[in-house]
Amino acid sequence: MSTGTTTTSPPGDDVAPHGSTGSRATRILGVLTLVGSALVVWLAFIATPADRVQGESVRLLYLHVPSVTVAYLACGITFVASAMWLWKRSEWWDIVGSSAAEIASVFTAVTLLTGMVWGQATWGTAWEWDPRLTSTLFLFLLLVGYQALRAAAPDRDARARRSAVVGLLLIPNIVVVNRSVEWWRSLHQDATLFRTDLDFRIEGLMLFTWMFATVVGLVLLAWLLIHRFRVGWLANRAEERRLDDAVAARRAEGGVPPVVDLAPTAAPTTGSGTGGDA
Amino acid sequence: MVADALTVAAKDLRLEWRTRVGLGQVLPFAVLVLVLFGFALDPDRGVLDAATPGLFWVTVLFVAVLATQRAYATESAEGVRDALRLTSLAPAGVFLGKALAVAVQLVVAELVLGVGVVVLYGADPAGWALLVGTALPATAGIAAAGSLYGVLAVGLRVRETIVPLLVLPVLAPVLLAATRAFEAALDGTPADGWPWAGLLTLFAVAYLVAGAGLYGVLLEES
Amino acid sequence: MAPDISLRQVVAVLGGFPALAGVDLEVAPGELVALVGPNGAGKSTVLRLCAGLVTVASGEALVLGVDVARAPRAVRSRVGLLGPSGGLYEDLTAADNLRFFARASRLDPAAVAAAAAHFGVTGRLAGTRVGLLSTGQRRRVALAALVARRPRLWLLDEPHAGLDAEGRDLLDDVLAGAVAAGATVVVASHDLDRTGALGCRHVRLAGGAVVGADTSSTAATSDTPPPAAPHGVDATADRPSGGGARGR
Predict the structure, then answer these.
(1) Is the residue at A28 inside a domain?
(2) Cβ-based contacts of C92 with chain B (< 8 Å)
(3) In a domain, A170, yes or no
(4) Could you identify which of A51, A217, B14, B59 might form a hypothetical disulfide with A70, taking C-beta atoms 3.0 to 4.6 angstroms apart as the criterion?
(5) What is residue C72's DSSP assignment?
(6) Left if phi > 0, otherwise alpha if psi is -120 to 50, otherwise beta: which for C40?
(7) Burial of C182 (0-12, 13-18, 19+ CB in 10 A)
(8) Is the pLDDT at B63 greater than 80, yes or no?
(9) Which tens digit of pLDDT belongs to each residue from C107-116?
(10) Which of B162, B176, B217 shows the shortest C-beta gap to A184?
(11) Positive/negative CA dihedral, C198, C200, C204, C205
(12) How many C-beta neighbours within 10 Å does residue B130 have?
């Protein structure tokens, strides 16, 4: 696991040639996202009609559902990246996994918030213990834990190791939570089911808007992921640079005798002397 | 691997016995939590009765967090960690041993809490087979997950607060299943509860296997 | 014969701090080497790295033929490390500790018992909690645990500190015996008289790197003149043997 710590050229140049993490690829993606988002907004608020049952609040779903999709997809990326790190032990996978997790937590938060607003608007309750919403809440908690763990780990190897283990278990844990909550709620045959799973019939322009919003969400995910990855990569390179400097400083310190102020106040005690007579 | 597990478990339990922290601090804490819940919910006696299984298992989770913190606190000194890493203990064995020691402590706590719940909340124990059939896999699962996430926190500065944050969301399904099973037992409808016990068994097996597999990765570092 | 330890420009980072900033060290089989230098120079880290417990950030580190950077675990069972804190469970008795580590390291119980007896860890001492023992007594227990492993490479961090005169002599005998039996011993110490008397080759460390070495055990090489303060100073030169001054 030796990593070279000597660099001749600024380490991030290949990643950030102009001092930013942008590149041709991200600019294309960024433009697509912007244009796509504008289209989605137009479609969501203007072009599509309100739903017969839900009224205007259906428009929120054009944000809510893509958020969920992106969040879970990002978690899937973290899962794969964690597994790959455990196999290959390469820094690349560690940064992919942690970037994806970070993005996932943002989208999960958006999902939860929009879900709650939608629920309040449609059904009058901001929260119901249905499997989907509860699983998403738990995903959020797990992701917060993942990030707290990363923040607390002192060095890169320890951090990568722990993140990989926790990242690997994110998806399995959510599956367990989902199944148990589903089972639990299915035992209660009462009628109030929180319909975030969109069993209602949507078709035509609304369906298109929904799918298009999802596609835009995926493009946004790609854009964010690339940028976040590069930031992470640069951060690691900067850390290596700092370490090189610290190593050099440490070597320099070695030649200087330490300055110790002793000012003894009493006659020296023999205490534990250096042993017998030589 | 099994021998290593027993060696580690014996050492952990002997440590626990010699310091009596489990006995002197954690168990009283558990009973205290029960009492506090009683204060909070007692005025409406019906609520307390209905909530008893849930409160029992929430308290067990608190005890579990403390127990796993303890299990790793004894080895947080660098000298001891180094010495352990120099032994030939198989990581999977160390994991199983730690989980076993935590499980034993949890079982003791559950027995005490069971008595506490009967005495303080006036619970009427019934459906013994289901109660035991639930408690054993639930305990195994809690101990396994706790030991895995506990070792993640070794070497971190904020060890005390990060373990609960990591492990409690993971253990929420255990809480759910164990509570439903206990409710079924106490309600006299054990048939409803056995499926939950089955789920708990799956969870326990899954985490024992996952822990045994992943522990080595976490122990390798400096 | 290939050296037992071969470190080339080894850099090691602990918690973001470069504990070792390019160490070069070679120890031949059967040698007796003393690492000396000021506190914080990296002596403990070198020992721990040779035990396969520290991640190698860069450089080449071969210990007993094992590339410690890639496969640290392979070397761990063949070394014995005596850390400054002893590495024992404070709340268990000495006997409990020895029994646990014996089983954990798959040692022969008879060998462990013999080692314990040799260091006087018997009877009441054995049945006392380690936390209640004095530093010297703890050191004896830790030494017994190390000796029982019969390692090829002995790594001792300040082993003489805290021992009484009898203990020190005992330790010196054990070290000499180990070397005679073919083991390699590396000691980190401030006690230059002891290490000189033992016949150690001294290697001086400062700032995470090796800054000086002597070829004969009593040579007094000095890189910089010692500071004027009379005692307790982190000396940057070997004190001439024969004085009673502490090297600390």
Answers:
(1) no
(2) 11, 14-15, 18
(3) yes
(4) A217
(5) T
(6) left
(7) exposed
(8) yes
(9) 988 989 998 8
(10) B176
(11) negative
(12) 22
